[in-house]
Design a protein that fits this description.
The complex is a heterodimer.
Chain A lengths: L5 H10 L2 H24 L3 H31 L5 H26 L7 H24 L4 H8 L1 H19 L7 H26 L7 H5 L1
Chain B lengths: L12 H13 L2 E2 H7 L9 H11 L2 E5 L12 E5 L1 H17 L6
The chains are: A mainly alpha, B alpha+beta.
Chain lengths: ~220, ~100
Amino acid sequence: MKRPGARVRAIAARLCRAETMARLVDPTLADLQAEYGNAMSRNRKWESRRILAQGYLALVQVMAVHGCVRVMAILGPSMDLHIKKVWVPGAASCLLFFGFHWVLIWLPFDKTRFQFLAIPYLVLPFGGALAAYGSRRMKGSVLERIVSALFPVFAFVALFAVRIGYGLFFEGTPYTLPHFLGGLSVTLVFIVVGGLLLVLGAWPFCRPHLRERLS
Amino acid sequence: MSKSHPRALTVSRKELLVLELLVRHEQLYGLQLVAASRGRLKRGTVYVTLGRMEDKGYITSTLDDPPPGAGGMPRRLYEPTPLGRRMLSAWSSGAKQLVPEFAR
């Protein structure tokens, strides 16, 4: 019988450094295998399934935490604090929103329906929350947290500006006033509704942290 | 200011907890640490903390023998180094001097 986690370990071994494997992946999988083997020897199937789920979840968590630590180490302590407080959390928020949108585009359903247009808005509070949380972790001020949360709006406006330039100078078909007004209305809706949703998601992380209140 | 301090001289609350548990039990596996911490250490982050502590030289680890007959991967056993023990005792005595309630 193949041990649980063997395939995951083989994949991880291709992606991770030997040190990461020895310190993080292997101990997590060794725990998983030991617990799983123990449960199976007592013929407890449900417990073994719970152990498998917990073990894999722990592995995902380990890799996520390690990934964040590595990224911050690469960015370095000499990196401008403003980048850590605003730009990195803002980029994470953009990545979540545009990544989600990109995944939706690939899903097979009618893309002209209102539901499709509305679904990306649902992820915006989470994007705002992610950015504000990241900024707060870096000890960003409330303003920095809100600015980082609003990054998808800034990106959307920038994309609109790029679209105008592309339409005017590079696109084959002429870029007319109706095209511009259509894009402008979508952008304005995104600025107002999207901005509100982003701030809504960021709001719980904008209150002073308990530690800040105590100090 | 803090950037100029060597990393080995810093210790977080989680690291102190790990040191306390390891000094009390001498040797523990990662999962045993999680169980002994009563929820204060998480399964998904304990190895990241342990790895960082190894880098700082507070703890050391050895690979245990694989379980006989089961054929699983060898588990990693953690124990405190002399530096880790000194750090814990220094922090404890310092905390007791600063906050007398700790001494009770």
